[in-house]
Design a protein that fits this description.
CATH topology of the largest domain: Rossmann fold
CATH architecture of the largest domain: 3-Layer(aba) Sandwich
Structural class: alpha/beta
Order of helices and strands: EHEEEHEHEEHEHEEEHEHEEHEE
Distance between the termini: 30 Å
Helix content: 25-40%
Largest sheet: 7 strands, mixed
Shape: globular
Number of helices: 8
CATH class of the largest domain: Alpha Beta
């Protein structure tokens, strides 16, 4: 077994290697003067079970192309099996035709991954679970929830209510509320544009309670901050938010600084610079991904990685 990393999230790849006790594979990833990506695998991979770690975070297109080129190089070097490890799967929000003459880019990316040489996919917290069906190769879909549960349990929050910031996240919020033995509420929202969200009303009792907002990803933080403002207005005490993938841009950071969110809990599925003025707790998913890789390599079941308290995250 060998594990290689693209340039998008090398710290996570190194942490995964440390968790399973193997060295990070040697490869050269550089660019030609015109911007084209060059990859050279610096060690023998013939007949090997190879894993390539690459989060498709911004710049998304560059990291995707880098992943395709790495897998093509490994395939031409006679690797026996190539597993694309995508802690964050980009383009997942474009999973359906919700208006005329638009692409289903999540499916296009799935086709390109297979064409580039992927024999298997390992990913975490897809924005839409039906994306697993876009592949005709095995997909192992993990959840960051068990890692986040442990952290929240340690905080020993009392009088807790788990809130979904929109209807689409209700299933995830219900799983959190069951495990944390907390109440459940939902914010009904209306999206004005890709960057602006108008929160409408809260369904459930949150007055005087600690609130945990749960979502799979945040970029502009519009959904989270609009929901937190409404929850504070309705009488919530402390507001915590947890997201698996924190792809914050300048607008999102600015919104968080001005928001009512006391703490943002996220993971290292994507790299993130230190941000001043916002309390952000980053939990590592290296152990979770490392254990999944170890089990895939040994042809063991990864089912138990989805389980918690006798249930499942979905």
């Amino acid at each position: 077994m060998k594990l290689f990393s693209g340039s998008s999230n090398r710290p996570l790849a190194k942490a995964i290697c440390d968790s399973i006790g193997i060295p990070l594979g040697r490869c050269t990833v550089s660019a030609f003067p015109d911007g084209e990506t060059f990859v050279k695998i610096e060690e023998n991979v013939r007949g090997q079970d190879v894993y390539v770690v690459q989060s498709t975070c911004p710049p998304t297109n560059h990291h995707l192309m880098e992943l395709f080129i790495m897998m093509d190089a490994l395939r031409r070097a006679s690797a026996s099996r190539i597993t694309a490890v995508l802690p964050f799967y980009g383009y997942a929000r474009q999973d359906r035709k919700d208006q005329p003459r638009v692409p289903i880019t999540a499916k296009l990316v799935a086709n390109l991954l297979v064409a580039a040489g992927a024999n298997r996919i390992l990913t975490m917290d897809l924005h839409a679970q039906q994306i697993q069906g876009f592949f005709d190769i095995p997909v192992d879909h993990l959840y960051a929830a068990p890692v986040i549960y442990k952290y929240i349990k340690k905080k020993k929050l009392t009088n807790l209510v788990v809130v979904s910031p929109d209807v689409g996240g209700l299933k995830m919020a219900h799983a959190y509320s069951e495990t944390l033995e907390a109440g459940l509420a939902i914010v009904a929202k209306r999206r004005r544009s890709a960057t602006e969200v108008e929160s409408m009303t809260v369904i459930g009792e949150i007055r005087g309670k600690n609130v945990l907002l749960v979502d799979d990803l945040t970029e502009t933080a519009g959904t989270l901050t609009a929901a937190s403002s409404l929850l504070k207005h309705k009488g919530a005490r402390n507001i915590y938010a947890c997201v698996s993938h924190s792809i914050l841009n300048d607008l999102g950071i600015d919104r968080l600084r001005k928001s009512n969110i006391d703490e943002l809990i996220t993971t290292d599925s994507v790299p993130r610079p230190v941000i001043d003025g916002v309390k952000i707790t980053t939990l590592t998913v290296s152990g979770l991904l490392g254990e999944a890789i170890r089990r895939i390599h040994s042809n063991s079941s990864v089912n138990s990685l989805f389980a918690f308290k006798g249930g499942r995250t979905s």
